[in-house]
TrEMBL record:
Record's function text: The coatomer is a cytosolic protein complex that binds to dilysine motifs and reversibly associates with Golgi non-clathrin-coated vesicles, which further mediate biosynthetic protein transport from the ER, via the Golgi up to the trans Golgi network.
Coiled-coil residues: none
Domain COPA/B second beta-propeller: start-end pairs: 343-588
Region (Disordered): 796-816
Quaternary structure, from the entry: Oligomeric complex that consists of at least the alpha, beta, beta', gamma, delta, epsilon and zeta subunits.
Residue ranges constituting the Coatomer alpha subunit C-terminal domain according to the UniProt record: 828-1211
Species of origin: Cercospora berteroae
Domain COPA/B TPR: 616-772
Predominant location category: cytoplasm
Name of the protein: Coatomer subunit alpha
Length: 1213
């Protein structure tokens, strides 16, 4: 027996399987009805409206309903969709024992201790028939699965069969009814002339010596089985006219509680109070199997209507089980599958022709009739099979297959022996493992032992392990054993392995356990492992090296690197044997070959991605519809945004991916389509990082960012456009912008005119004088009515002209960063012909058009020629000028810039520390802003520089040459450029052992200023850091929380000391200062610091309260110190002070500190934030603040903005 699920509860009295879903209803003696998912092992729902034990439950076959009956005399009909009772049927006068739905009519049958059986119509909620005749409790009543019959069992020692055909006629639709039927229908409550009602007793079966507890019909045959308190299970047969006892199954040694027929085999199952489940041969009436529980009596048994599952209710819950394995024994050889059918016939299936052969051999005589063979091993050289069965403590049989499959013939020459596992290891040798004596025998084809091997202790199974080898399976390990050398080659710690599936090339194997798949190579080295929450049933290998495996409800795939996904869903369990193209060959539980159609596109694409077969990826993209968020997120996670770009249609997602992979072409296209200011801003930042100033110019134009445009034209040397910017500034009436442009242009005269315009004559005079414009200076003086003698000038230096661009870089872009074209994109562009996409070549557009005029101050119409100069944004020719031949683009990608290892660091990692190491401080700051809301980066400047310097070493080169630069990695053995990462100085261990430890020592030594500085430094070191595992990341975050609490505690105490000048006697201060200092002393005890330091805080607060006659507070602190303190001397002192305080526990000054309230301390105001009160917190260290401080910089870490949105600090790649 294979137990599939067990629940723990009070006594189970009623059980029902859902016909389609993996659900089971269990009604309990405690009045609860439980709904379980036996596949997942989870409790879905509980229904609790009955008063007293619930003895019967049943699911409706098609509707979302179930019915229950209990000791409260009530029958309730429930909807499991709405999770409530729909209505209650009242009428029984005693306990309701069983309830069942009719298979097609809207009827419910119930049996009760009131000695009646009642049939109810659940649609109109009425009682339609009461069947009387039993003279003791009726324990069970069921409808016949097909005919108009009811069978009932009673403690009056009889079983009755009732004919209810009259009831059907009376309550069916009145279409083609005879006159007699219509008369009967009109007199529903009257008996006929013989006194019969609608339900008449057809047979009374007597044979039990005591009460009968259960009775059931056979699903197809005219048979009845009953179980009684006389410990017997009886089989009855009936015909149209009579019924008789066939035989009795004896074996239970206590009351037999229930019995039923196996839905698909000639078996009877019964349960009893002797704590056993027994299985009987229907034909021979002999016991086949029995299973005993240690302590629990069984009360009820139920069979699943469709699949081979049973459930039995006992004193402590319910168990769901099956009688035998349903996995068909099979073996694969080239294009043929050999398998054993349910009838125990050996057959073959040809994959090339998709043809099933007739039966080749009959194995009826092998083992027990009810126990199917476990394994099949095929020897192609001898065309023989080796079959094992668990019957008789494990046996094997070696037999030859006939050349022609002409029907199920008995094997001619067979060799048999004892063994739990048997497998061919060579053309003329096979191995047999016997678990009882822990021995492996190597035998020849005559069944003679040639060699004996002692396997490792605890071995439970043996499978083929490659040429000349065996894989030996133990509960916690798998061993690779060489038969020839008689030695163990390798071992792997993996638990619960049940099956092993080898790839067709013999280089890899999948070890399948209940919930795990472990992929190993032929040397038993683990390659990857994955976990499933639902049971794993089988697996097979694709020719490309992808593992396909099946669970109870899915076919999934797994790549060698552990990536996995769903291929298709399953309605029924199947066992995979072969995959070829889009066809997945499998055997179902009935051992019938099936071919499922699958779509291998997703896993083939991922495989091509892992192996970097770009041509294949390109072909998949062009020929299939591989879309969805899962594939996009997978590509992003693996660092291939440029490939994800090929799948996405949504403009926003396309823009994000294009920015991530540096594809400015697509980014511009999407930004133009969406036209949002934030997108133009992001595009401008990215284009600037690439050095693509043409796109930068366009984004500044879109954002109307005139100041940045002017500076861009200055840096690129575009004098003509700088002149136009000056004209535009004049039209806009923007004096500041005009002045700025005149400085960029070196136009002194314009500056003087502007200063005169705004009545800044002194500045205009100084400007003219310093630039040697004497006439202009004199004119200004005259206009002011002054002479040179009347003014006193400071010492004037020489005028400096603005620097001119050495090379006209505005004529072409200067790439400083690779534009994201990898091998895949090159392959993609090559497919489109010879045209090469220039991601940096953007023609200038008339982007603002007439909007520039509208932005002015109305003077443009009178501007004359200047109006034309500033008209729109058409600044130059439509085509981009060619770069001059003597212009050398030293920063181009070809020159090697942007492809250094430092650039790889920034690309490979989402950690701020790695970006700082790469020298990309701006992206590091952006990351910290997103992760922890960082806004004040001044405290991190030293950390950024420390990391940057620590990741580089310099080797002096020859004289006149720059030193050679070497990069320092933390991934020393990594060869994949996508995984190369820098060494980050001051790791977690060093921060814990230096800064955190120093801070704690300072707390102990009462050097709070030093301690606070140490903890703040620790916070800043941990904010920009990297760790190697998730466990270390959790440890680092815990250290951040702890350091923050110490900073808060020390800051509170330092604030108190500042307030009182370090004095403990506050009698000389005003009342407000006294109150505040006493409160701060109390708040010092609130932060969550280590117990020994909490003891110091409590001791300090207690002494401070004592000196200032705060006896109520003193008592609180003394109690806390006695309860939580770690210092015996302090505790003794607390006990003495407590004795004094208890005499008069009142405070001289009332303070805001409630020892019984839940609150935290605001790290800015050092006042309480009570539970339930609105508050904000630092996204990095978690310290709490009142909401008025939201948006300000955290006082503890000094970096993050309080209440800023954040994704959380990331410390692992």
């Amino acid at each position: 027996m294979l137990t599939k699920f067990e629940s723990k509860s009070s006594r189970a009295k009623g059980i029902a399987f859902h016909p389609k879903r993996p659900w089971i209803l269990v009604s309990l003696h405690s009045s609860t009805i439980q709904l379980w998912d036996y596949r997942m092992g989870t409790l879905i729902d509980r229904f609790e409206e009955h008063d007293g034990p619930v003895r019967g439950v049943d699911f409706h076959k098609t509707q979302p309903l179930f019915v229950s009956g209990g000791d409260d005399y009530k029958i309730k009909v429930w909807s499991y969709q709405t999770r409530r009772c729909l209505f209650t049927l009242n009428g029984h006068l005693d306990y309701v024992r069983t309830v069942f739905f009719h298979h097609e009519l809207p009827w419910i049958i119930s049996s009760s201790d009131d000695q009646t059986i009642r049939i109810w119509n659940w649609q109109n909620r009425s009682l339609i028939c009461t069947m009387t005749g039993h003279n003791h409790y009726t324990m069970c009543a069921q409808f016949h699965p097909k005919d108009d019959l009811v069978v009932s069992a009673s403690l009056d020692q009889s079983v009755r069969v009732w004919d209810i055909s009259g009831l059907r006629k009376k309550h069916s639709a009145p279409t083609s009814m005879s006159f007699e039927d219509q008369v009967a229908r009109s007199n529903q409550q009257q008996a006929d002339m013989f006194g019969n009602t609608d339900a008449v007793v057809k047979f009374v079966l007597e044979g039990h010596d005591r009460g009968v507890n259960w009775v059931a019909f056979h699903p197809t045959l005219p048979l009845i089985v009953s179980a009684g308190d006389d410990r017997l299970v009886k089989l009855w047969r009936m015909s149209e006219t009579k019924a008789w006892e066939v035989d009795t199954c004896r074996g239970h040694f206590q009351n037999a509680s229930a019995a039923l027929f196996h839905p698909h085999q000639d078996l009877i199952l019964s349960v009893g109070e002797d704590k056993t489940i027994r299985v009987w041969d229907l034909n021979r009436r002999t016991s086949v199997q029995s299973f005993k529980r240690e302590n629990d009596r069984f009360w009820v048994i139920a069979a699943h209507p469709e699949i081979n599952l049973f459930a039995a209710g006992h004193d402590n819950g319910v168990m769901v089980f099956k009688l035998e394995r349903e996995r068909p024994a099979s073996a694969l050889y080239q294009n043929n599958l050999f398998y054993i059918t349910k009838e125990k016939h050996v057959r073959s299936y040809d994959f090339t022709k998709n043809v099933e052969s007739p039966s080749m051999l009959s194995l009826k005589k092998l083992g027990n009739a009810w126990v199917p063979p476990r394994t099949l091993s095929y020897n192609p050289a001898e065309r023989s099979v080796l079959v094992t069965t668990p019957a008789d403590s494990g046996t094997y049989e070696l037999m030859s297959l006939p050349r022609d499959a002409s029907g199920a013939v008995e094997p001619t020459s067979t060799h048999r022996g004892n063994g739990n596992s048997a497998v061919f290891v060579a053309r003329n040798r096979f191995a047999v493992f016997n678990s009882q004596n822990q021995q492996i025998d190597i035998k020849d084809l005559q069944n003679s032992t040639t060699k004996t091997i002692k396997p490792p202790a605890g071995t439970t199974d043996m499978v083929f392990g490659g040429t000349g080898c065996l894989l030996l399976i133990a509960p916690t390990h798998v061993y690779l054993y060489d038969i020839q050398q008689k030695k163990q080659l390798a071992e792997l710690a993996v638990s619960g392995v049940k099956y092993v599936v080898w790839s067709s090339d013999g280089l890899h194997a999948a070890l399948l356990s209940k919930h795990n798949v472990t992929i190993v190579d032929k040397s038993l080295k683990q390659i990857s492992t994955l976990h499933e929450t639902i049971r794993i049933k089988s697996a097979t290998w694709d020719d490309a090296g992808v593992l396909l495996y099946s669970t109870l409800n899915h076919v999934k795939y797994a790549l060698m690197n552990g990536d996995n996904g769903i291929v298709r869903t399953l309605e029924h369990v199947v066992y995979l044997v072969r995959v070829k193209g889009r066809s997945l060959y499998c055997l179902d539980r009935a051992a019938k070959p099936k071919v499922l159609t699958i779509d291998p596109t997703e896993y083939r694409f991922k495989l091509a991605l892992v192996k970097r077969h770009y041509d294949e990826m390109l072909n998949i993209i062009k020929t299939s519809s591989l879309v969805g968020q899962s594939i996009i997120s997978y590509l992003q996670k693996k660092g291939y945004p440029e490939i994800a770009l090929q799948f996405v249609q949504d403009p926003t997602t396309r823009f994000d991916l294009a920015i991530e992979c540096g594809n400015l072409d697509v980014a511009v296209e999407m930004a133009q389509q969406l036209d949002r200011p934030k997108l133009w801003q992001r595009l401008g930042v990215e284009a600037l990082a690439h050095g693509n100033h043409k796109i930068v110019e366009m984004t500044y134009q879109k954002q109307r960012n005139f100041d940045k445009l002017s500076f861009l034209y200055l840096t690129t040397g575009d004098q003509e456009k700088l002149n136009r910017m000056a004209k535009i500034a004049e039209h806009r009436g923007d004096i500041t912008s005009q002045f700025q442009n005149s400085i960029y242009l070196g136009d002194v005269q314009s500056r003087i005119e502007m200063l005169k315009e705004v009545d800044q004559y002194p500045l205009a005079y100084v400007t003219a004088k310093s630039h040697g414009l004497e006439d202009e200076a004199q004119a200004i003086l005259e206009a002011s009515g002054l002479s040179e003698e009347e003014i006193k000038l400071p010492t004037l230096g020489k005028p400096i002209a603005p620097p001119k661009a050495v090379t006209p870089t505005f004529q072409g872009n200067w790439p400083t960063k690779p534009t994201g074209t990898n091998a895949f994109e090159k392959a993609l562009t090559a497919e489109d012909g010879d045209a090469v996409v220039d991601t940096n070549g953007y023609g200038e557009e008339d982007l603002l058009g007439e909007d520039a005029a509208a932005a002015g101050n109305g003077t443009m119409d009178e501007a004359g020629d200047d109006d034309d100069a500033a008209e729109g944004w058409d600044m130059g020719d439509e085509s981009i000028p060619e770069v001059e031949e003597d212009f050398v683009n030293v920063e181009s990608a070809e020159a090697g810039a942007g492809s250094s290892e430092a650039d790889l660091w920034a690309r490979n990692s989402p950690l701020a520390a790695d970006h700082a190491a790469a020298g990309s401080f701006d992206t590091a700051m952006n990351l910290l802003n997103r992760q922890v809301g960082a806004v004040n980066f001044k405290p991190l400047e030293a950390r950024f520089l420390e990391i940057f310097q620590a990741t580089r070493t310099y080797l002096p080169a020859n004289s006149g040459l720059p030193p050679l630069l070497n990069y320092v990695r933390r991934t020393l053995n990594e060869t994949d450029s996508r995984k190369v990462l820098p060494l980050i100085p001051r790791d977690l261990e060093s921060v814990l052992s230096i800064e955190i430890a120093n801070g704690k020592n300072a707390m102990k030594a009462n050097k709070l200023e030093d301690g606070r500085a140490s903890f703040k430094k620790a916070l800043q070191l941990l904010m920009v850091n990297a760790v190697s595992s998730q466990g270390q990341a959790q440890e680092a975050l815990a250290a951040v929380q702890q350091a923050a609490q110490y900073v808060l505690a020390m800051s509170i105490e330092l604030e108190r000391r500042t307030l009182t000048g370090g004095s403990t006697d506050i009698s000389s201060f005003d009342d407000a200062t006294k109150k505040r200092s006493l409160e701060l002393s109390a708040y010092f005890t609130v932060p969550e610091i280590e117990p020994q330091h909490q003891t110091l805080a409590l001791f300090s607060a207690m002494n401070f309260a004592n000196k200032n006659k705060q006896l109520g507070s003193l008592l609180n602190f003394a109690n806390a110190l006695i309860e939580r303190g770690t210092n015996a001397k302090f505790k003794e002192s607390a006990r003495k002070l407590k004795a004094v305080a208890e005499r008069s526990p009142t405070d001289a000054i009332e303070i805001e500190y409630d020892t019984y309230a839940e609150f935290e301390i605001c790290a800015a105001s050092y006042t309480p934030i009570y539970a339930g009160e609105a508050s904000s917190s630092c996204p990095f260290d978690g310290t709490k603040y009142h909401t008025k401080y939201k948006g300000t910089v955290c006082k503890v870490c000094e970096v993050s903005a309080i209440g800023a949105p954040s994704s959380g600090l990331r410390l692992t790649v």
